[in-house]
Amino acid sequence: MDRRTFIKTSSMIMSGLAASNLLNQAIAETKTAMIIDEKHPLLLNFNENSLGMSPKARQAVIAALPGSFRYPDSARAELINHIGDHYNLTEQHVTLGNGSSETIQAAIAMLAAQARKQNQNIQLVTPDPTFNYAELYSIPLNIKISKVPLKEDFSFDLHKMEQLADQFDGLSIIYICNPNNPTAMITPSSKLNQWMTKASDKQFFIVDEAYAEFVEDPQFTSAIEQVKQGQKNLLVTRTFSKIFALAGLRIGYGIGAPEVVAAIDQFLPLDNTNTAGAVAALASLQDKPFIAYSLKSNNVSRNIVKSALNELNIAYAPSQANFIFHKVKGDVKTYQKRMAEAHIMVGREFPPALGWSRLTLGTPEEMEQFVVVLKRFREKGWI
Question: Less CB within 10 Å around the terminal CB: N or C of the chain?
Answer without folding.
Answer: N
